[in-house]
């Protein structure tokens, strides 16, 4: 009897009371029309998942780790109000991912005064890639506002007054999502600038990287051992052309944008140095991740329409985007309020 009672209180190693608490705090306490939309429900579940990973598991090391898709299925099966979504869990998640990969992104490229180094950020995982500070735009948000918000969240500095909306590099991602990314160029940033990430469990390092390392045509044998780049190579040509033009005009700028000294995680970014702790990888993550994403999208469309072809993929993309385009959540604001 004791074992049966204990089992009833836990699902996949997670106390039911914890799942109910997360659902009530992040998912169920919304208007009825929100609960009727499975895509918007998954946005709310993502907030609950972030809290579970950032706080619940930190306080209880016995709690298992879940992917977002598995965590969503766990809530669908546990919470009575969400059980109707369980049979189509994979389809719902496929549309959600399609939308997220379609939303335009904005960020910034911070250059040192000599314009030969850029600031990049790295994720928390051991084999995470390095990329520019950037993020997805909220509905109705200006591109420059998004760029400033994302940069401040990720590296702690306010670049609002330094953004020139005419000085940027732009790229449209290949593949089914055609995601657009705009990066505003901020020159003249001192290498002694203080940076501080405000994110939780997202960024482990902020470092200066030589621009030459971003060249997509650089020979594998000349890449820095252990460094993975993602979403940077496609901006190399536009950035180097901008730098050439700036040098011809003899542009010299000094910008002071230190993060507040009372910020958490305060440090001065250093130039990236090879580490024996990192995997022996030469930037190969970019192509493989993009290919994996495209394969996932094809499978998601097949789950919805029964087969994959370009027409179905286009319909799938438009349906996913139109159902979510007016919905946005500011993770940082919500986490700060918790």
From TrEMBL:
For this UniProt record, give its keywords in alphabetical order, as a comma-separated list: Cytoplasm, Hydrolase, Manganese, Metal-binding, RNA-binding
InterPro entries annotated for this entry?
Answer: DCP2_BoxA, DCP2_BoxA_sf, Dcp2_NUDIX, NUDIX_hydrolase-like_dom_sf, NUDIX_hydrolase_CS, NUDIX_hydrolase_dom
Highest taxon in the source lineage: Eukaryota
Q: What do the Gene Ontology cellular component annotations say? A: cytoplasm
Q: Which GO terms describe its molecular function?
A: 5'-(N(7)-methylguanosine 5'-triphospho)-[mRNA] hydrolase activity; manganese ion binding; RNA binding
Name the chain's protein.
Answer: mRNA-decapping enzyme 2
Compartments in which it is found = Cytoplasm
State the similarity comment: Belongs to the Nudix hydrolase family. DCP2 subfamily.
* Nudix hydrolase domain boundaries: 101-231
Species name for this entry?
A: Bathycoccus prasinos
Xref: Pfam families: DCP2, NUDIX
UniProt GO BP: deadenylation-dependent decapping of nuclear-transcribed mRNA; nuclear-transcribed mRNA catabolic process, nonsense-mediated decay
Cofactor(s) the protein requires to work: Mn(2+)
